[in-house]
Amino acid sequence: MKDIDQELREMVSSPTEKRPVMFIAHVNQGEGCKYMISCGETLWKLKAIDWGGALKEVKARVIGEVDEDGDLEDGYYGESELEAIELFEIVNSQQMPLSKWYSEAQDIMDNKKIADKEWAEKMELKRLKGKYE
Predict the structure, then answer these.
(1) What is the mean pLDDT of residues 90-109?
(2) Rounded mean pLDDT of 59-86?
């Protein structure tokens, strides 16, 4: 029976199957807002085994698909032609600790409410002291 360490070593060292890599394509349609892309820019999220696979996927999106009449549809050509696409391979990524950040923001707002309430109470105390002293 294999131990866990041995299984992990075999999984890491066995190059039998490549895992998909994440790519991002920055798509630029040029000046202003046109037909297919809001305000001329967008990002496409892609998964591929390598750069070649990513390039094939980008090309397929640019050209579009051939419909049953032999026409291209859903592509970026003619009036919706693209100006540039820059492809990035995502080497590292990290989830952002949003719940922690929102908790910190809530603490800031709670502290501000407390400070505002204390300030209002001090102003009221000052007003009352002036009135009754």
Answers:
(1) 93
(2) 83
